[in-house]
């Protein structure tokens, strides 16, 4: 049987040598990471590689994935709307080919029942895998007035019903924006559509200014907690309904929502008239508040009358899991510092293999000023901060900085180096939104204590992976590693064995991220 995967499932995520998978439709092409041509590095998106190869289109479909040995290099080729990237030596690869019937319609035939269905049933079958935690931020200001407020409630009720709310499906809540925001009900309060529909009908109109920015900020901060029903690993969405224009600044609220990993949609109804535009603080407010200014997160309705035809397209957007670019994932929400042994026993050529390992781990992550960040410290008896988390905010610059690290040569004081990194590298970001990881690489016995500094690092919220090579004592490696020590401790006899560990380190970071995710 074919396995349904996401747009961003990578070759290294599969376990079988040959596996049939199903790619979803409408993957965002500009978000794909693809390395190579015909033979793709296992770091690549499977669906991205399949589109690049011409096996499927962006309409999705079935793909056969075959695991292959690693290559010395992977070329960059532009094909079918996707620009693949150059990659040096990588531990494993894969190829993609067509299965007998590659259309999503065929896949649908194989899993659907033969009985006919109504239009509504058909839509809900199409979104039956929809999972989202959604806050409807409705307009309760004098801008909208009582009559249009009731029409807004009817529309939100229709959207809620069509979403197919259920225990394992979408969960919704409502916040009303007016002078002061009010959370009407949380995600945890109702898990059946008819209950939600009744609760929406009972909502009272509050009036006041449309302080949408204040309400958006309040919702991003207070609404999506585990105590209030938010679920781990499920996209968080705020749908802002706006009649006219906001009476306060919503740009800052949009930034805060993105920092919290919330995907903001704005449904605007009745744009400001030419006369009213003079009252709008910022006419570009929609583009600045939504998750991404790419057209997907903004939705325009001309009036509150006759809105039924707008329900289905909005529901389809809210259930497009892979388009939720502001969701926090292990790839875009971690800080990883590499603590690199520069002692004399390593030597120049082996030191380059260590840097290759670091580069290959870093390549897996989406590095940006609001995404994941990388830092590096080299140590002997002394420590040298090669670069910090805020020095480079693009992947290209980080990889260039790694290549330019010069080998120090000297003794081995790993404990002091961990203390230095905890204080000087992680200190400035300790209150930031990203989860912190430290990867320690060493080839020998430390001259100082490692247990105390590693415990202090872990107490400061840093997850520690220890990677030992050659003569590194296993006891030291385990003393440094986070719990469970077995899954955070790695060892290879030869420096050439490092490249085989890259997928395991990436998977380990992602597992820890998901386990800790609020």
From TrEMBL:
User: Which GO biological process entries does UniProt record here?
Assistant: sensory perception of sound
* Domain VWFA per the UniProt entry, residue ranges: 133-318, 335-505
Localization in the cell: Secreted
Domain of life, per lineage: Eukaryota
Q: Please verify whether the record's keywords include Secreted.
A: yes
Secreted: is it a keyword of this entry?
yes
| InterPro entries reported in the protein's UniProt record | ECM_Assembly_Org, LCCL, LCCL_sf, VWF_A, vWFA_dom_sf
Sorted keywords for this record are: Disulfide bond, Glycoprotein, Repeat, Secreted, Signal
GO cellular component assignments: extracellular region
Record domain LCCL: where: 1-94
What is the recorded function of this protein according to its Swiss-Prot or TrEMBL entry? Plays a role in the control of cell shape and motility in the trabecular meshwork.
Q: Which PANTHER family match?
A: COCHLIN, COLLAGEN ALPHA
Q: What is this protein called?
A: Cochlin
Corresponding gene?
Answer: Coch
């Amino acid at each position: 049987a074919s396995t349904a995967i996401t747009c961003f499932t990578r070759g290294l995520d599969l376990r079988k040598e040959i596996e049939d998978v199903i790619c979803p439709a409408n993957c965002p092409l500009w978000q794909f990471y693809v390395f190579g041509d015909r033979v793709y590095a296992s770091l690549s998106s499977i669906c991205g590689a399949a589109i690049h190869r011409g096996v499927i289109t962006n309409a999705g479909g079935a793909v056969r994935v075959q695991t292959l040995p690693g290559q010395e290099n992977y070329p960059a080729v532009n094909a079918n709307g996707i620009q693949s990237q150059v990659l040096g030596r990588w531990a494993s690869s894969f190829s993609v080919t067509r299965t007998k019937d590659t259309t999503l319609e065929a896949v649908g035939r194989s899993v659907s029942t033969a009985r006919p269905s109504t239009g509504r049933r058909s839509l809900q079958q199409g979104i039956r895998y929809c999972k989202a935690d959604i806050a409807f931020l409705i307009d309760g200001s004098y801008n909208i007035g009582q009559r249009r407020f009731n029409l807004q409630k009817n529309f939100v009720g229709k959207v809620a019903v069509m979403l197919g709310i259920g225990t394992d499906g979408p969960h919704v809540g409502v916040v009303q924006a007016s002078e002061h925001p009010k959370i009407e009900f949380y995600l945890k309060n109702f898990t059946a559509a008819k209950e939600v529909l009744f609760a929406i009908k009972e909502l009272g109109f509050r009036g006041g200014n449309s302080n949408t920015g204040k309400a958006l900020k309040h919702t991003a901060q207070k609404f999506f907690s585990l105590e209030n029903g938010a679920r781990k690993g499920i996209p968080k969405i705020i749908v802002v309904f706006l009649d006219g224009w906001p009476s306060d600044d919503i740009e800052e609220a949009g930034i805060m929502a993105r920092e919290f990993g919330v995907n903001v949609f704005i449904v605007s109804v009745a744009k400001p008239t030419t006369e009213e535009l003079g009252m709008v603080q910022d006419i570009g407010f929609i583009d600045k508040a939504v998750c991404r200014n790419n057209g997907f997160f903004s939705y325009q309705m001309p009036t509150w009358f006759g809105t039924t035809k707008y329900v289905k397209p909005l529901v389809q957007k809210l259930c497009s899991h892979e388009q939720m670019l502001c969701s926090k994932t292990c790839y875009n929400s971690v800080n990883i510092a590499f603590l690199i042994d520069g002692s004399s026993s390593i030597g120049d050529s082996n030191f380059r293999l260590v840097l290759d390992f670091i580069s290959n781990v870093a390549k897996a992550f989406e590095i940006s000023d609001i995404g994941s960040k990388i830092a590096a410290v080299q140590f002997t008896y002394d420590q040298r901060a090669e670069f910090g988390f805020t020095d480079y905010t693009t992947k290209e610059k980080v990889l260039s900085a790694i290549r330019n690290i010069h080998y120090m040569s000297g003794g081995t004081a790993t404990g002091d180096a961990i203390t230095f990194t905890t204080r000087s590298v992680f200190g400035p970001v300790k209150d930031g939104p990203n989860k912190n990881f430290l990867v320690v690489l060493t080839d020998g016995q430390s001259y100082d204590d490692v247990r105390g500094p590693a415990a202090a690092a872990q107490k400061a919220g840093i997850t520690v992976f220890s990677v030992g090579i050659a003569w590194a004592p296993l006891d030291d490696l385990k003393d440094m590693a986070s719990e469970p020590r077995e899954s955070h401790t790695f060892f290879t006899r030869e420096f050439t064995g490092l490249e085989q560990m890259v997928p395991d380190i990436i998977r380990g970071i992602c597992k820890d991220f998901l386990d800790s995710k609020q």
